[in-house]
Fold this protein.
Amino acid sequence: MDEVVAVSAGCHRRLAGVLEYALSTVPHTICTLDTLPPLTGRRVLFAVSLGPDGLDVDFCRLLRLLRSGGLPLDGSMGAILMDGEGEFYTKQAAQMLVLAANRAGCLFPGKPLVEATGSLRNFDIQCRRRGTDRLHAYRAMARELVERLSSFVPPVYDRPKVLTLHASDRKTSNTLALGGEIEARLAGRCDCTELSLRNGTVHDCRGCSYTVCAHYAQQNSCFYGGSMVDQVYPAVTECNALLLLCPNYNDAVSANIMAFINRLTSLQLFHPLHHTYLWAVVVSGYSGGDLVAQQVLGGLCLNKGLILPPRFLLAQTANDPGSALADPEMATRLDDYAANMLRTMSPKI
């Protein structure tokens, strides 16, 4: 196992104890924001404590470092322990941290977060599965996360299979236009497939019990069936990378994209997605692309287990049809984005 560098930010007593337990089985170094070594090319565990208001001075310092470019993470891999004194803000803080670190160059393996609310009630399901109490479930999951971070090896594909998924109108969509340009730059070095969620009715998840969901999952199906089962599930299972095209609808992904994310629960029960890379294009008419990006990485990396490659996001502000490609810097940005995809997934090419 490789050494883990644990970056402690506002580490209060409970998290300090969990962190000590989690790191005990792997080579490690613990540092604070005042004693940071260079983190490029390292395996980095962010251990963050939040107050009851969801804030912490060290956490804000860490975000500022990452967002300003003061903490480069090129070639690094990351995971997060997020411990809060209250019941809110832990997931929100984690999503902000993941986006900032990812834009600084950090890759995150699937499900890279263990979070603890003040009451630890969010561990109740794990308590039942493990036959233990909340604190011991928290400690066990933290150790498993650290061991996975220490041993994770990003997959390499000679000719990546890239699935572009969208729910847009080709005549008017800036997002789909950017996706097409990325596909053109990958052609010849990747096998690209495009799938529209507009081709059929995509019902949202009905919230089946685990038993019912598992019953359908064993048959590679879902309660609702339809295009999700007939087309989307096989395509997601076969791809090495998912390129998700997400126009910003009221500071959120569109209904069909959200239904797709929710409906993946049935698939992943028996087809883990931890070898699949996640890429995303987000186009906003005004602002809020960061909110959509956090929603995507939260649903598909933190929850569903896809790999978040470094700089997974291409974001653009555009209103009129065609205006995204008319940006004089866009061709260069598209070149860089496609090159990053290839460099990450097929570094030997």
Observations:
- The chain has twelve helices and ten strands.
- The first helix runs from residue 13 to 23.
- Confidence is low (pLDDT under 50) at residues 204-210, 212-221.
